[in-house]
Amino acid sequence: MRAIMVSENGGPDVLAIAELPDPEPGPGEVVVDVAASGVNFADITKRAGRIPEPLPFIPGHEAAGVVSSVGSQVSGVTVGDRVGWGWPGVSGGYAERVAVPAQWIVPLPPQMQASTAAAVLIQGLTAHYLSHAAYPVRPGDTVLVHAAAGGVGSLLTQMIKLRGGRVIGTVSTAAKEKVARQAGADELIRYTEVDFAAEVKRLTHGAGVSAVFDNVGRATFDGSLAALAPRGTLAIYGQVSGPVPAFETARLIAGGSLYLTRTSLVQYVTNREELLARADDLFRWVISGELSVNVWGRYPLADARSAHHELESRRSAGKLLLIP
User: Fold this and answer.
1) By CB neighbour count within 10 A (0-12 exposed, 13-18 middle, 19+ buried), where does 208 fall?
2) What CATH number does the domain located at 2-121+272-323 have?
């Protein structure tokens, strides 16, 4: 089979196509013939070495396809089943075939295309736990979503609207503003042109927002705290601009007894029951049309470098897929 290998850390050029033996399923595993793989920022941070990963490795934590073989100690899964997965603990998605622990796969409904599943699982599960658990959005809440046109941001915006919230989103370009408005954002801020915290206070008549969902990290941390209402919640789920430096917790008191959480999908999908519950919501909303999945670009597996260049440039406003 063909796969993308990372043999040394570095830029997109270290992504190399390789011919490898077909995987065999171990106990509790199934092998999936991959139809589409999702490209995520976690793939970039591991490729670059900012998140340690033993070398060499095949990137990719999200994909969908058809089960081609089933290992021992697996029940409820048969050859020919259409499945997907999107979980940080499962890697190797940049390949034509992957051995996956059966506990982390989800069955695809007949109406769900494999490419749609590969586009929605990790980012959709992330948006789900953020809006339903990290800060359960209530009807009437006003919240701030950074990168509202991105893969997570556009899904998160839609879920907040489904829960009755009001969304103020940050974007960097006119094209991304259009995407975020289509997702349902009520107000948009070009953070490259204005002080987004001051603009949030203006849009909320000085009150601030109930929650900020922040995947940027270092560059937005101070402004995100300043945008919160007293007892508001800052949920950080990424660090595109770098990790947040150490700070005095007294700043949380000064802001009005603020809450700060650094979240991860791993802690919000801890078992199969939780995985299926969140995935069932995602698939139901996609099939009903309540949740729109924006695929920004599709690339051949061998052109993974271009997909990484596109994602790192922050030009994309939606999901990027690799198609074996």
Assistant:
1) buried
2) 3.90.180.10
